[in-house]
Design goal:
The complex is a heterodimer of chains A (508) and B (677).
Chain A lengths: L1 H7 L2 H18 L5 H25 L8 E11 L3 E9 L4 H17 L8 H20 L3 H22 L4 H30 L4 H7 L4 H18 L8 H8 L2 H26 L1 H26 L5 H20 L4 H32 L10 H4 L1 H14 L6 H14 L8 H25 L16 H19 L2 H17 L10
Antiparallel strand pairs in A: 1-2
Helix pairs in contact in A: 2-3, 2-5, 3-4, 3-5, 4-5, 4-11, 4-14, 4-19, 5-6, 6-7, 6-11, 7-9, 7-10, 9-11, 9-12, 10-13, 11-13, 11-14, 12-13, 12-18, 13-14, 13-17, 13-18, 14-16, 14-17, 14-19, 14-20, 16-18, 17-18, 17-19
Chain B lengths: L6 H49 L5 E11 L2 E9 L1 H24 L6 H20 L3 H19 L11 H31 L4 H11 L4 H18 L8 H4 L5 H10 L4 H8 L1 H5 L2 H23 L4 H21 L3 H36 L19 H15 L5 H19 L3 H29 L6 H4 L6 H16 L10 H6 L13 H23 L13 H4 L1 H7 L4 H63 L1 H16 L4 H21 L1
Antiparallel strand pairs in B: 1-2
The chains are: A mainly alpha (508), B mainly alpha (677).
Chain lengths: 508, 677
């Protein structure tokens, strides 16, 4: 019994499963008491964030290995083969957990007035989604990981399918099937590893490192199938604009902010961690697709008429940077990539919130409907400007730090063997300025041409509260990213060492 | 005293934060005092740094402010470098900046976004100081893009004005995007530097290239050419200069501060800073010199034909920046910095005076209800008696720019020409003589178009009611003008040929920075040319003054179609518009709508994948099911038994993974059914 309590109260278990407490409370509340439901939902998510800060407090950034580990045999199969309840956090995942626990309450708070129907179910699905996301980042048992991975699909499916736009059924099914299709290959690979290696434990597998290179490649591809769709890597991005356009604002925030990172995190944790040889083998191909994605996403963003679509395609471009950094396979590239995951969560999350704010007022997202909004809503315009600049990688704001370190990492990467990846990717910086400033101009500059916009209210206190934490992070990471890099550096060093790559172009 | 240097950034930061938060409650007077005071305080700190350097025997000092990016061996701190070069720029930026801030208080009076203007202006000063105070390339780049974004915001400050109410916003966007093309070159250059040196700290980088010399010549050539791309963007050189004339959409103090005196010189500063890399890349140096000289001449010809008072000055700025770039290419770093400083004085003066003229004419327009374009010189004329101070300082600025002895422009321009002469005649390089000829021609044109402008604006009779009712501006505007006029007159004193004050001051930063001896032949030639040019200008414009605001340029009869060619800026904007811009927009639409939406999304996904899925499931549910339906009933009893024995029993394994699989398959099937319906 004592041990049981110990496990239940271990930090990572609490961080992962505390939202379920909120779910149970929500179940007991009358569905007509909407404000109470909202308070309980947001409150639970906020408490979860506090718990994740406790986790951060207990985290030792000097330690490269897994920390705060919880490990308990869960399903015993045969004598020495089991699926374990195995959680742990290290420098690769700690920031992503914090990102998930931060964005969830923000997204829920942002939907305070946008969601009026089925508030109870909405809050429950959101909290369930949080359990799944946190679980993915913390799970160290491959099968457990797979369960959390699939589990995230269900609440998101309903969030899009119930509270989405006109075409929501199509989008939600497409989202579900598309991601599912990739996951099945991953399931096969997970089962294969479990059977052949005799364990599902990530830490055990990573330290064994005895998968033959030929086999690694097949496993790499099977995992990559699931992750590449999630990221999404070009050309598997077709589900993303649909899902974003139809999802409710908060759904888009979480989708772009966290769910896409499940894919990049998967690459980082499993493909890089378990299949180092295959990672080297495939690095140039993946980097190639990443660079194509950077340019393609940026170009395709530009002529979009729907703001949400524009931002969705920009994600394809931004996530391309992350993938490029990861497969530079050196410390700069990977640290930059992890930071860029966080940056994209913040900036794109904020952009979707911003789009949601105008959508709530005007019930349209068509760029042609806007113009001159800065005059009508000065605060809204100014805050948007900061986010836009962050998203296009202005130095001094967060996006630049990530992009620069990624490009520098890719430039000197021996795994890629050519600096052209980096040079072409850097063109994305020009293109980002084109589509981002275009969007800003269409929405905010010029005279107020559409009289429907003339009397719009500027942001209310709730909307300001929603954006402020993200704005603080935009400046913090841009000006003083050291604390963020420090959290990940030990683990990334260990990973790059494992990748057998203590190299740089630097010969000091 | 060096530890005070962070305050140079801190004061304007505090200024902008104060105005950002409290600006709307403070009223114009306090907003203006806070903003100008913050920059003035920075100026004092900058001057203190001069004395600190003197006390320190001119030795460079670095001040660490905070860590920034540290990954493995990569160390990029927020670190300020205090050496003679950076302090020169700090003093210049804050000094001219203070005067322009004070002027702007008068100029922006009554604007509904008064406080916001000063927030932007202070932010600009911060970014410009980050740029010049940086101790590594990346921090320089932060300032570099930072001033770019301030420029974007200030060009589009009146974002609801201009053509289609969007012209100003478009000009801002154009400026930033064109600059980003330059920044791309800068970024790649940084990657290459880091790849070779393993650091972006100036000391490490410059030490590396000085010590490896010609053995890294190839690398140095690539890097310096990429840096040139960056400089061409920021300092508006061929082929990226197209943004600067449009940038005149911003309020005039912005044109003076950002687009004449400080930001646009950042490219020159950066190349001077990188001088040791250029030193081992002779072919890059030659490219830089020729590009600068070519820009100087080309922009001069365009300035010749413009009617907009600010556009003349804008092209003149491009032309003068060309002089500086050419000087850098010739290895005449001191001359480049010297001209940078004097140009900051007299071009800021000219822009602010032009602003004063515009303001005066606008005032007249209100009074007379004649709403003509207040920037078109054809609507002016005869202002010399109505705006006496403005007229006086304008003439000072113009003859300083034309390079007439003994004003500041004479000394600095002459030093560049002397350097070109030296490289061409003494060292015997063909490009030196080419540069000399191009620059001498540009100087002739400069004197001519300034004469044209002075006469069109101030002489003759008023060609519009607005000009007729124009009036002089208040002292907040005229006092800074007088200050700048004095600087434009005596500014040459910082580097007179017999003292070389600036040269020996800058020499402490790089040992091969030194001035060149006075060359009487060159000086006499250029003075004679300038005087002759002014004389011709008088003949053309004074003796046959423009009669009305619709009359053609008298020069038309001399130059004919080539004047039209110059007026239309050599059709460069049209060329870029039809090639790059149109092409990109077409390509973007093609990719977005044809490739991504029609082909990839609608055809491949919705038609092929979805349809074939529907077909398969349709076949299964249709023919298969219907044909099999009889057998189904026949064999129902048997089947139930069979399923129970053969299927269900093994399925009941007790393994969760199997159940999970089952659940998943079930979900897939349910979804499939939903899809079919």
């Amino acid at each position: 019994m004592y041990e049981f309590i110990l496990h239940i109260t271990s930090t990572l278990t609490v961080v992962t499963f505390f939202p379920l407490v909120g779910v149970f409370v929500l179940l007991l509340i009358n569905k007509e008491k909407k404000d109470l439901l909202r308070w309980v939902g947001v409150g639970t998510a906020l408490l979860t964030f506090v718990f994740s800060l406790v986790m951060l407090g207990q985290f030792d950034s000097q330690d490269a290995g897994m920390q705060l580990v919880v490990s308990e045999s869960w399903i015993q199969i045969g004598s020495n083969w089991s699926i374990d309840y195995h959680l742990g956090v290290d420098g690769l995942s700690v920031l992503l957990v914090l990102l998930a626990t931060l964005l969830t309450p923000i997204a829920m708070f942002a939907s305070w007035t946008a969601i009026e129907e089925r508030v109870k179910e909405y809050m429950i699905f959101f909290l369930l989604l949080e359990v799944g996301m946190t679980g993915v980042f913390l799970a160290l048992d491959l099968f457990l990981f797979y369960i959390f991975w699939e589990f995230t699909l269900v609440p998101m499916y309903f969030l899009i399918g119930i509270w989405g736009g006109e075409n929501r059924i199509y989008a939600s099914i497409k989202f579900f099937l598309y991601t599912m299709a990739g996951s099945i290959l991953m399931l096969v690979a997970v089962l294969w590893i479990g059977t052949v290696q005799g364990t599902f434990s990530y830490t055990a597998l990573a330290s064994m490192g005895n998968i033959p290179p030929g086999t690694q490649r097949w496993l790499f591809l099977a995992f990559a199938a699931a992750f590449a769709i999630k990221v999404p890597m070009w050309p598997l991005h077709s589900w993303l604009p649909d899902a974003h356009v139809e999802a409710p604002t908060a759904g888009s925030v979480i989708l772009a902010g966290v769910l896409l990172k499940l894919g990049t995190y998967g690459f980082l944790r499993f493909n890089l961690g378990l299949f180092p040889d295959a990672s080297h083998y495939f690095a140039p191909s993946i980097a190639f697709l990443a660079v194509v994605g950077i340019i393609y996403g940026a170009i395709v963003s530009y002529p979009q008429k729907d703001v949400k679509k524009l931002v969705a395609y920009s994600s394809v471009s931004h996530l391309g940077f992350v993938m490029l950094g990861l497969f530079a396979l050196n410390d700069r590239g990977i640290q930059g990539a992890i930071l860029q995951m966080v940056n994209h969560g913040i900036s794109t999350g904020a952009l979707f919130l911003i789009v949601g704010m105008i959508y709530e007022r005007r019930h349209t997202r068509s760029l042609d409907e806007f113009g001159g909004l800065w005059t009508v809503m000065p605060l809204y315009g100014s805050l948007t400007l900061i986010v836009v600049l962050s998203s296009m990688g202005l130095p001094g704001l967060n996006g630049f730090v990530g992009e620069f370190t990624i490009l520098l990492g890719a430039f000197g990467s021996e795994a890629l063997g050519s600096y052209y990846y980096s040079i072409v990717a850097a063109l994305g910086v020009i293109l980002a300025a084109i589509y981002m400033l275009w969007m800003f101009q269409k929405m905010f500059l010029g005279a107020v041409s559409n009289e429907k916009n003339a009397l719009l209210q500027d942001l209310n206190w709730r909307e300001i509260v929603v954006l402020v934490p993200l704005l603080i992070l935009i400046f913090w990471i841009g000006l003083y990213p050291s604390p963020f890099f420090n959290l990940m550096s030990a683990s990334v060093e260990q990973l790059t060492a494992a990748l057998d790559f203590g190299n740089t172009l630097v010969l000091q | 005293m060096f530890e005070l240097v962070p305050f140079i950034l801190l004061f304007p930061v505090l200024g902008l934060l104060t105005n950002l938060v409290f600006g709307r409650y403070l009223g114009e007077r306090f907003v203006g005092i806070i903003a100008s005071g913050a920059v003035a305080a920075s100026f004092i700190v900058s001057v203190i740094q001069v004395f600190a350097l003197v006390n320190n025997n001119f030795h460079v000092e670095t001040v660490l402010v905070a860590d920034w990016i540290t990954i493995g061996k990569m160390y990029l701190p927020w670190q300020i470098r205090v050496d003679t070069l950076s302090v020169t720029m700090m003093v210049l930026v804050t000094g001219v900046g203070t005067l322009i801030h004070i002027y702007a208080v008068g100029y922006m009076h009554g604007d509904k976004r008064f406080a916001r203007f000063f927030v932007y202006l202070n932010l600009f000063v911060v970014m410009m100081l980050v740029l010049v105070a940086a101790d590594n390339y990346l921090m320089l780049f932060v300032g570099w893009e930072g001033v770019g974004i301030c420029s974007y915001l200030l060009i589009g400050f009146w974002y609801d004005k201009g053509d289609d109410n969007l012209g100003n916003a478009r000009a801002g966007r154009k400026a930033f995007v064109v600059n980003r093309i330059g920044d791309f070159g800068f970024l790649i250059a940084m990657f290459m530097i880091f790849g070779a040196v393993g650091s972006l700290q100036f000391d490490a980088v410059l030490y590396y290239f000085e010590n490896h010399g010609m053995e890294v010549g190839q690398l140095a050539t690539t890097i310096t050419l990429l840096l040139l791309v960056g400089a061409a963007g920021k300092s508006a050189q061929i082929p990226l200069f197209v943004w600067l004339p449009d940038a005149m959409a911003g309020p005039t103090p912005v044109s003076a501060l950002i687009h004449a005196a400080t930001m646009v010189t950042a490219g020159i500063y950066m190349m001077v800073r990188s001088a040791p890399i250029y030193a081992i890349a002779p072919s890059s140096q030659m490219t830089v010199a020729l590009l600068g000289a070519g820009t100087a001449l080309m922009a001069g010809t365009i300035a010749l034909a413009q009617w907009d008072i600010k556009r003349v000055l804008a092209y003149s700025t491009i032309s003068q920046l060309g002089f500086m770039v050419a000087a850098v290419g010739l290895g005449a770093h001191v001359a480049a910095m010297f001209h940078l400083i004097t140009h900051a004085f007299f071009k800021a003066l000219l822009f602010l005076s032009a602003g004063s003229v515009i303001h005066g004419v606008e005032h007249g327009a209100h009074k007379s209800d004649d709403h003509c374009d207040p920037q078109d010189m054809r609507n002016m004329g005869g202002l010399k008696d109505k705006m006496k101070i403005t007229f006086g300082v304008y003439v000072v600025g113009a003859i300083a720019l034309a390079g007439i002895f003994p004003l500041s422009g004479f000394w600095s321009k002459d030093e560049i020409l002397a350097d070109a002469w030296h490289v061409g005649m003494v060292e015997g390089h063909w490009h030196g003589m080419t540069v000399y000829i191009l620059l001498a021609l540009a100087a002739v044109i400069t004197a001519f178009y300034m004469t044209r402008q002075i006469i069109l604006v101030f002489f003759g009779s008023s060609r519009s009611a607005a000009a007729n009712h124009a009036a002089e501006n208040p002292p907040t505007m005229t006092v800074p003008l007088i200050g700048l006029a004095i600087l434009s007159i005596v500014g040459g004193g910082i580097n007179l040929p017999w003292s070389h004050t600036l040269g020996s001051w800058l020499e402490h930063t790089h040992h091969f920075f030194h001035g060149i001896d006075f060359n009487l032949t060159v000086a006499l030639t250029s003075t004679a040319l300038a005087v002759a040019s002014i004389f011709v200008g008088f003949i053309v414009y004074y003796r046959r003054p423009l009669e009305s605001s619709t009359a053609p340029d008298p020069l038309m009869s001399v130059l004919g179609p080539s004047l039209k060619f110059f007026y239309n800026k050599w059709y460069i904007d049209e060329l870029y518009g039809t090639t790059f811009v149109r092409l990109y927009e077409w390509k973007a639409r093609f990719l977005a709508f044809k490739v991504d939406r029609d082909f990839w999304h609608d055809f491949v996904h919705n038609q092929i994948i979805l349809k074939s899925f529907k077909n398969v499931s349709g076949t299964l549910s249709g023919p298969v099911d219907r044909l099999g339906i009889n057998k189904f009933f026949d064999g129902l009893a048997y089947s139930v038994h069979n399923i129970a024995v053969k299927v269900l029993r093994p399925v009941q394994t007790g393994y969760v993974r199997n159940y999970a699989l089952g659940v998943m398959l079930g979900v897939v099937m349910v979804l499939g059914i939903m899809l079919i319906r």
